[in-house]
Design goal:
- The complex is a heterodimer of chains A (214) and B (547).
- Chain A is 21% helix and 42% strand.
- By secondary structure, chain A is an alpha+beta fold.
- In chain A, a hairpin with a 5-residue loop joins strand 1 and strand 2.
- Chain A is elongated, with a radius of gyration of 26 Å.
- With 547 residues, chain B is of the alpha+beta class.
- A six-stranded antiparallel beta sheet of chain B has the order 2-1-11-10-7-8, with no helix packed on it.
- Classes of the chains: A alpha+beta (214), B alpha+beta (547).
- At the A-B interface, helix 1, helix 2, strand 5, strand 12 and helix 3 of A face helix 1, strand 12, strand 15, strand 17 and strand 18 of B.
- Strand 12 of chain A pairs antiparallel with strand 12 of chain B.
């Protein structure tokens, strides 16, 4: 099943959790910005405990940044992901991962779009007319992964609503001008209009100045 | 209507007579000019010395034709600023100046007859009423009309500008896409297929869809929309043309990603040899109203049903042992609790060796451990030996790794021999058939089976029946002790973060879609199991013992 959830959580199904002794909560924040042609930029960030940081670095630190890329690519295999950026902060034990994914939302035609989130048990809320948020917890060995997820759709989005697909997965449907766009004004016409007004004012001033000679 | 003049009118502009005027009867045929007292137009003989005594004269040639003659005066005569040489025509209204800086006057008639106006009316003194009257009655109207005419230009420009600006600010609907789409395709194929894992390849949900047959990325690099983009594939002789995806639209700059999860027929599990196959990809689409087609064929290896390729990782990506065993998650495809032969074998162990005891009943781990040791005892009584095929280093496309011939549990039972991984698969199959929760521990160079029971891990060393490294046939309890010691070492190494120590949870992986190879019943193999079972019975029911 190809759902956006694959692009978010799977990277954290990491083996370090098998090695953990006591239950710990891993909090991750993910922002996904969907563009007007259905591609998206994902930004994931998290703060780890000392033991998690050691295990994380064992996998991804110290020159192993390419492993982050590989892990995401494998976890999100039904998608095409690219343009990776990994920024660990050793002092704060925090990290940020950025990557892009192609074709993450589907265009249905007539300016209608649908994004399949891929979870049945989430309770998404609208943050703005074009963004949604939900929090999802997932037990992973001894760790509890808690993901705070925000999807932001194009700014022209309207009529955003939640639905479910045939399998009960949460979907987000929205409208966004795609094949046509409402343009507020024609640049060339505006330029021509301002030019004519300017010429008119100049002509009027010239007439006033020369009226005695006429 | 013209009127006849009755008198000459001389209006002095400057000089002693400035602003004065003199009239003469029009019957006179000439008017003399000078300081002489006999002159008609006389100037002051004492002060206006620039004027000669007989300076000149105005002669009437006809009723409306006059000339002025200079009598050779010392300072000359000027008409309208132009010096008179001899005589010149003089019109009413012309200015006559005597000497360059001398006195001047306007020659006129009263009433003035119709005819041409003097050339330089505007320069005539304000005292000339006729000219002023003409100007006052005609110029203001003309100027107003001219001004109004010119005013039209800025007004029209301003109105036009406002109109165009209003139109320019109107919201309009415009097409964002036009022209033709441009299809650009990337294919990411799997270079080798393990028939035993055919159910995994068919399942998009298995292991997050990681084991796809091919991933196809379609980008639209054009300016128009690609419509009805259908991706189809076929594997000649194995899978007919099948639709993998059907996208209504791919927008300019947009993409569609298709992952192919083919439904291989069960017959592929009968393959006992590796073969080279071809995959065909066909993409049909419409661009700018035209039907277009893209086709590609590429080769891949179809391994035999017993082949287990330990990794799909490209050689350039391998970082260590863990990457070389990246396919361990596929191991459950060789764990076959549903195999009728394995079920029958498990049933014989219960009946002939354990005397009907079942390990899954009750909460005590002792029963589970006794069942584990019972399986070991069954292999010991049948003199199963630890031996098998070794792994070979192979290259499949950009994959380099170990491939091993894995005998299926039914083949290990009937062949009565197996490698550690094969015995582990057999034990896990029997444990699962019994209702236990099997696991397999992978450590460097070795694998051994175990179970999860009430949150605890238990293991047994199946290769203790004899073979490399042991030197003797261990008792079931010894095999269990060895297994538990290996579990202790395993946990220590995992906690130390050694990625080479991994565990596969068979039921968890099955829940994630890693389903076993499907096998049919076989009467001959049942007979072989019966022969084994006869050996179980020798020695009587298995009783838990430390010896």
């Amino acid at each position: 099943m190809k759902t956006l959830q694959l692009l978010i959580l799977s990277i954290f199904i990491w083996q370090i959790t098998d090695a953990q002794i006591k239950p710990e909560t891993l909090q991750i924040k993910t922002d996904a910005k969907v563009d007007s042609i259905g591609n998206a930029l994902f930004t994931m960030s998290g703060k780890l405990t000392a033991s998690q940081w050691i295990a994380w670095n064992y996998m991804y630190g110290g020159g192993q940044a390419s492993m982050v890329k590989r892990t995401i690519e494998r976890a999100a295999s039904p998608y095409y992901v690219y343009d990776f950026k990994y920024s660990p902060n050793e002092m704060d034990r925090t990290f940020t991962i950025e990557y892009k994914a192609k074709g993450v939302v589907e265009y249905l035609g007539k300016n209608k779009w649908v994004a399949t989130i891929g979870s049945k048990d989430i309770q998404p809320v609208k943050l703005t007319p074009n963004s949604v948020n939900y929090v999802q917890s997932e037990a992973n060995g001894n760790a509890i992964l808690q993901n705070n997820m925000t999807f932001t759709f194009p700014s022209e989005t309207t009529n955003m609503d939640f639905d479910k697909d045939e399998f009960g997965n949460v979907t987000v449907k929205y409208n966004c001008p795609t094949e046509t766009a409402v343009v507020s004004g024609d640049k060339d016409l505006k330029t021509a209009g301002y030019s004519l007004l300017g010429a008119g004012v100049l002509a009027l001033l010239a007439l006033v100045a020369l009226r005695k000679k006429l | 209507m013209s009127t006849s003049p009755k008198r000459y009118l001389i209006r002095f502009i400057n000089g002693q007579k400035a602003s004065q005027q003199e009239e003469f009867d029009f019957s006179k045929s000439e008017l003399t000019i000078g300081r002489d007292t006999a002159s008609d137009i006389q100037f002051d003989p004492e002060t206006e010395l620039v004027v000669s005594r007989n300076h000149g004269k105005i002669i009437k040639k006809a009723e409306d034709v006059f000339i002025i003659e200079d009598n050779g005066s010392r300072n000359g005569t000027f008409v309208n600023g132009k010096k008179v040489e001899g005589s010149v025509l003089l019109n009413p209204g012309d200015e006559v100046k005597l000497g360059a800086n001398g006195p001047s006057f306007i020659f006129d008639l009263t009433p003035r007859p119709g005819g041409p106006l003097p050339t330089q009316l505007v320069n005539i003194s304000p005292a000339t009423t006729t000219i002023d009257i003409d100007a006052k009655t005609t110029t203001p109207t003309a100027k107003s009309a001219k001004f109004a005419y010119w005013l039209l230009l800025p007004v029209l420009l301003l109105i036009g500008g406002a109109g165009v600006l209003w139109k320019g600010n109107q919201k309009t609907v415009v097409a964002k896409t036009s022209g033709e789409g441009d299809l650009v395709v990337q294919i990411f194929p799997l270079p080798a297929i393990m028939p035993a894992a055919y159910k995994v390849y068919a399942n998009p949900a298995a292991l997050d869809g990681r084991y796809y047959f091919a991933k196809i990325v379609i980008d639209n690099k054009g300016t128009g929309i690609l419509n009805d983009v259908k991706v189809e594939y076929s594997i000649p002789g194995i899978i007919n043309w099948t639709t993998a995806s059907d996208s209504k639209f791919i927008l300019p700059g947009g993409s569609a990603v298709t992952t192919i999860y083919p439904q291989f027929p069960q017959s592929v599990t009968q393959k006992t040899t590796e073969s080279a196959e071809r995959a065909q990809i066909r993409i049909t689409y419409t661009s700018a109203g035209k039907q277009e087609k893209y086709e590609k064929t590429y080769p891949f290896s179809m391994l035999s049903r017993n082949d287990f390729l330990y990794t799909n990782m490209p050689a350039s990506e391998v970082t260590g042992v863990k990457d070389l065993e990246d396919n361990n998650d596929l191991a459950p495809v060789f764990i076959t609790p549903q195999d009728p032969i394995v079920k029958y074998y498990t049933q014989q162990i219960q009946e002939k060796l354990l005397a009907g005891e079942t390990a899954s009943v009750g909460n005590k781990s002792d029963e589970a451990i006794r069942f584990m040791m019972g399986v070991y005892e069954a292999t010991r009584r049948t003199h199963m030996v630890y031996s098998g095929t070794g792994g070979a280093f192979v290259q499949k496309g950009d994959i380099q790794g170990t491939m091993q011939k894995i005998r299926l549990p039914r083949e290990v039972i009937t062949g009565n021999t197996g490698l550690c991984i094969e015995m582990s698969f057999l034990y896990a199959s029997v444990f699962a058939a019994e209702g236990l929760d099997p696991v397999i521990f992978f450590i460097p160079g070795h694998a051994f089976p175990g179970i999860k029971y009430n949150g605890q891990l238990f293991a047994i060393e199946p290769t203790a029946v004899g073979g490399e490294g042991l030197g003797h046939i261990a008792s079931p309890f010894e095999a269990f002790q060895i297994g538990m010691k290996e579990v202790d070492d395993f946990i220590k190494n995992v906690q130390a973060g050694d990625p080479r120590y991994t565990l596969i949870d068979v039921n968890d992986l099955i829940a994630k879609g890693v389903h076993q190879i499907e096998l049919t019943d076989d009467a001959f193999l049942r007979t072989k199991v019966d022969e084994m079972a006869e050996r179980f019975a020798v020695g009587g029911p298995f009783v838990f013992s430390k010896n």
